[in-house]
Amino acid sequence: MAERFTKSMARNMYMGGSLFFILIFVGLTMDTVRQMPDRDNRENLTEAVAHGKKLWEDNNCVGCHSLLGEGAYFAPELGNVFQRRGGDVAFKAFFKGWMNAQPLGIPGRRAMPQFNLSDEDLDALADFLEYASKINTNGWPPNIEG
């Protein structure tokens, strides 16, 4: 290696490396886009789920909770709350009771505000959380409590 490292050699390494990593990025992006239809939950997307998502956003639930790892970590992860709290059998009853009982008023514990949502709104929010729980997330969150 007695030869000098020239500007043209440096430019060729830069361009070759850039092209290599751009191709890797494009390939991984195409793979993700190809897998998305198999992993989404579109067949369960209803008007109630859309209304629940709007309630989620309007009430800033993500300001305290995380959903599928996105959001604040002040309160529990809600991406798998449907499975944790009874699934198809008991979730809606649990969810309505929980939301109507807020704030619990337990000293030393974080308090969730009372949003005064109607039964229809609570059903829609429960449908949204059920929808979110059925998205294929490759095992995220890694534990049952999020």
Automatic annotation (TrEMBL):
UniProt domain Cytochrome c: residue ranges: 47-133
Entry's EC annotation: 1.7.99.7
Keywords: Heme, Iron, Metal-binding, Oxidoreductase
Coiled-coil regions listed in the entry: none
Pfam families named in the record: Cytochrom_C (PF00034)
Transmembrane segments: none
Keyword Cell cycle part of the UniProt annotation: no
Single Gene Ontology MF annotation: metal ion binding
EC class (word): oxidoreductase
Protein name: Nitric-oxide reductase, C subunit
Gene that this polypeptide is encoded by: norC
